[in-house]
Amino acid sequence: MTEARAKARTEPGESRFAQGFALFAECLLTGVWIAVAALPLVTYPAAFAAGARHLGRRMGHERGGWREFVADFRAAARRGWLVGVAGWAALAVVWVDVRAVRDGLPGGPLVGAVGVLALIGAAVAGLRAAAEWRPGASWRSLLARAGRRTVLDPAGSFLLVGGLALVVCSAWFSAPLAVAVLGAVAAAAVAVEERHRRR
To answer: Which residues contact 74 (CB under 8 A, 6 or more apart)?
Structure first.
C-alpha cells in the first residue's frame, strides 16, 4: 500500500531522485525567503509559518510560489509579530539567567538550566505552531496545542531540536549556510506535524 501511495505521488516521467532533489532545492530557496521575511526580527514566526505553508503545498504537489508566500506572510504577520516580541522577551530572560550563572549567584546553575530548557521547548512549540498555521488561525490556540504536542510527542520534538542545532552550527560555521538551512527546519516541522497527525 505504501508503494502504491508513493507511485501515486510521483509525477509521470519524474524519478523519485528528481523529486527529492527538487524538494531539497525548494527547501533551500524557502530558507532564503524565510530569512528575508524575518529581517524585521519580530516577524520570524510569520516567516516560518509562510515557509512551512509553502513547503506543505510543494509536498502536496500544489502550485504556489513567491506571491503565495508573501500573501501567507502578510496574513501570519498580523498577529504573529506579537509572538515574535514574546520570543525575544523570553530570550532576554534566559540571557539574564545565564548571566546569573556566570556571576556565581546561589541557585544560578539550576535556574540557568531550567531557563535554557524552557527556551528550547518554546522554540520547538513555535516551530510546530508555525507548521500548523493557516490563514485566520489564532496564534494563541496554535501555540497552546503546539505546546501540548511538544511534550506528548518527544520524538518529533527532538527532531526539531536537532534541526535548530543544525541552524546554530551552520551559523557558527558560515552565516549564508544557516540561511539555507532555515528552509530544511521548516520542512522538518511540516513533516513532524504530518507524522503526528497520522499517528
So the answer is: none
Decide: helix, strand or coil at residue 82. helix
Write down the pTM of the prediction: 0.87
- The enclosing H or E element of 124 equals helix 108-132
**Whether the Cβ atoms of residue 9 and residue 59 lie closer than 8 Å to each other:** no
Q: Is 197 exposed, middle or buried (0-12, 13-18, 19+ CB in 10 A)?
A: exposed
Percentage, residues of the chain above pLDDT 70: 93
How many angstroms separate the Cα of 50 from the Cα of each of 74, 130, 135, 146?
9, 8, 10, 17
| Position 12 confidence tier, pLDDT thresholds 50, 70, 90 | low
What sign does the dihedral 32-35-39-42 (CA atoms) show?
A: positive
Residue 136: what are its φ and ψ, rounded to 5°? 90, -5
**All 3 cell numbers of residue 163?**
534541526
Dihedral angle sign, alpha carbons of residues 175, 178, 179, 180:
positive
Asked if residue 106 has pLDDT above 70, the reply is yes
Cα 97 from Cα 110, distance rounded (Å) = 9
Integer Cα distance of 110 and 144 in angstroms: 26
